Structures are given as structure tokens and as C-alpha cells.
């Protein structure tokens, strides 16, 4: 299968790429840092020889980069089986007190980018009558997170987009799944003194996606909610 992963060089995105590569999926991956992209490709080549990985340097805050990435994928893959809208940004702040650009930046990366890519590749999947879109939402898609006003708004909207896509694509055999992780131990928590067992691990999210992909053609997993056993930290 051919899979697209945005923000695939760190945290949840990297874990997803490695798990998909382990299952012999070809990958089209974008991220902002070219060195990180090359390091990911080298790691996959070492662990899973023969797996195709194509890379594209993109800043998803720029709408043109989003469209250029889509054009790149279409030039590399004749068809797309999996789209994973993983890239996201969190700027901590209360909604009323945040910098005036914080909402627009989070909206572009967390929502507008998945909207554009889901339209482009959702149409291809609809024509193919197969495919699977995963949107990496958040538990903040269900209940607003404290000191995360705009982030919560964008993740609420991403969950709404997921539901709309599922409604429109299910009769064409295309699956759409929302993944809603709680606090996940990624680089954003670097330096924390909170014990690791208080977090969800990126591999947990990646495993959930791979297991969902292995289900029968008639089964659609609407939402995957993964929270730390002791509650969000």
C-alpha cells in the first residue's frame, strides 16, 4: 500500500512511519527539516530494506507548500491507499490572552492542511473506491484543554471534518478514522520530570492505526481514544 504521512519525522508521526514501513507500506513523508527527513529514510532503509520512501520538505504553515506536497505525491504514486494527517502545532495560551497570530497559525496547520489534503486524496480514493484517511485529533477535540484555547478549537474542527468525510465517503468503500490521543511522550515533553508511565507512547498510537488497517473491509473504526491510565498530565 502507498501511504502519506505529514509531520512524519518526530513523535507520533515517526512512530507511524516506522510501523507502516514494517508492514511493507511505501511512504510519502513531509516535514520542515530536510536532515530529519533524510535520517528517517536512512533508518527505514536500515530496518526495512526495500521499502520505498519519498521525501518532501514542506512548511505546512504555507498553503503553497501543502499544494506542492500534494503534487509531489501524485507524481510519485499512481494511487494512494492511506492518508495520515498527523502534522500539528500546539501554542499554549488562554484563548482571550493569546498572540493575535496564534489562532491563524494553528488553524492553518491543524485544520486547513488536512482539509486540502483530504479533498485532493479523498477524491482519488472515492474514484478508486478504496482507501483510508486518519486524522490525528486529540482528546482536546472532545473537551477543551486548559491553556489551549485555539488549539482546542482547531482540534474540535478537525474531528468535525473527520465526521463529514466519513459520511461522504463511506458509500464508496473509503474509511475515515479519528485518532484522539491524550498526553503522549514526544519531544514536546523533553525535560519533564513526570514519569514515562504517565504518558501514552507514540508507538501506542501507531499500533492502533496499523491494527485498524488490518480489519476486514466492512469494518470502519470511527474513533480511537487513547488516554494515559492515570488521566492526562
Entry keywords:
single chain; 233 residues; alpha/beta; seven-stranded parallel β-sheet; 6 helices; 43% helix; globular
Short description:
This protein has 233 residues and is of the alpha/beta class.
Largest sheet: 7 strands, parallel
Task: Classify the helix fraction into a percent range.
Answer: 40-55%
Provide the succession of SSEs.
EHEHEHEHEHEHE
> How many separate helices?
6
Number of strands: 7
Question: Which value, in Å, is the CA radius of gyration?
Answer: 17 Å
| Strand order in the largest sheet | 3-2-1-4-5-6-7
Q: Strand share of the residues?
A: 15-25%
Find the structural class using helix and strand composition: alpha/beta
Outline = globular
Q: Give the distance, in angstroms, between the N- and C-terminal Cα atoms.
A: 36 Å
What's the average pLDDT? Answer: 92
Low-pLDDT sequence parts: none
Topology record:
Layout: E1 2-6, H1 11-22, E2 26-31, H2 34-47, E3 53-57, H3 63-76, E4 82-85, H4 102-128, E5 131-136, H5 149-169, E6 174-181, H6 202-213, E7 223-226
Parallel strand pairs: 1-2, 1-4, 2-3, 4-5, 5-6, 6-7
Helix pairs in contact: 1-6, 3-4, 4-5
Structure description:
The chain is of the alpha/beta class and 233 residues long. Helices cover 43% and strands 16% of the residues. The protein has 6 helices and 7 strands; from the N terminus they run βαβαβαβαβαβαβ. The protein has a 7-stranded parallel β-sheet, sandwiched between helices. Helix 2 links the parallel strand 2 and strand 3. Helix 1 packs across helix 6, helix 3 packs parallel to helix 4 and helix 4 runs parallel beside helix 5. It is globular, with a radius of gyration of 17 Å. It starts with a strand and ends in a 7-residue tail after the last strand. The mean pLDDT is 92.
Amino acid at each position: 500500500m502507498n501511504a502519506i504521512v505529514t509531520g512524519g519525522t518526530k513523535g507520533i508521526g515517526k512512530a507511524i512511519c516506522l510501523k507502516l514501513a514494517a508492514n511493507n507500506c511505501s511512504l510519502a513523508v513531509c516535514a520542515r527539516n530536510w536532515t530529519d527527513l533524510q535520517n528517517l529514510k536512512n533508518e527505514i532503509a536500515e530496518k526495512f530494506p526495500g521499502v520505498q520512501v519519498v521525501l518532501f520538505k514542506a512548511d505546512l504553515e504555507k498553503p503553497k507548500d501543502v499544494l506542492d506536497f500534494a503534487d509531489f505525491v501524485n507524481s510519485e504514486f499512481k494511487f494512494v491507499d492511506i492518508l495520515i494527517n498527523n502534522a500539528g502545532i500546539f501554542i499554549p495560551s488562554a484563548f482571550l490572552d493569546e498572540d493575535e497570530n496564534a489562532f491563524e497559525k494553528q488553524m492553518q496547520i491543524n485544520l486547513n492542511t488536512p482539509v486540502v489534503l483530504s479533498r485532493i486524496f479523498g477524491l482519488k480514493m472515492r474514484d478508486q473506491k478504496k482507501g483510508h484517511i486518519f486524522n490525528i485529533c486529540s482528546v482536546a477535540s472532545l473537551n477543551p484543554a486548559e491553556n489551549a484555547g485555539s488549539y482546542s478549537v482547531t482540534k474540535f474542527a478537525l474531528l468535525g471534518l473527520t465526521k463529514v468525510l466519513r459520511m461522504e465517503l463511506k458509500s464508496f468503500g473509503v474509511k475515515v478514522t479519528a485518532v484522539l490521543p491524550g498526553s503522549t511522550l514526544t519531544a514536546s515533553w523533553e525535560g519533564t520530570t513526570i514519569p514515562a508511565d504517565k504518558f501514552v507512547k507514540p508507538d501506542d498510537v501507531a499500533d492502533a492505526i496499523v491494527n485498524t488497517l488490518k480489519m476486514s473491509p466492512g469494518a470502519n473504526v470511527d474513533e480511537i481514544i487513547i488516554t494515559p491510565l492515570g488521566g492526562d498530565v
